[in-house]
Amino acid sequence: MEDIRFQPRWNTKAVAISAQMKEVTIRKYCALLEAAGYTFTRINDRGDRRFSDIEIEMIIDMRRLSEESDMDVKQIAEILAKQYSKPSFISEDTHVDQTRSNELREIVESAGRQFGSIAKEEMRETVREEIKSELESQMNDLKIHITEELLEIRKEVAASRELPKRPWWRFRK
Question: From which domain of life does this come (predicted)?
Answer without folding.
Answer: Bacteria
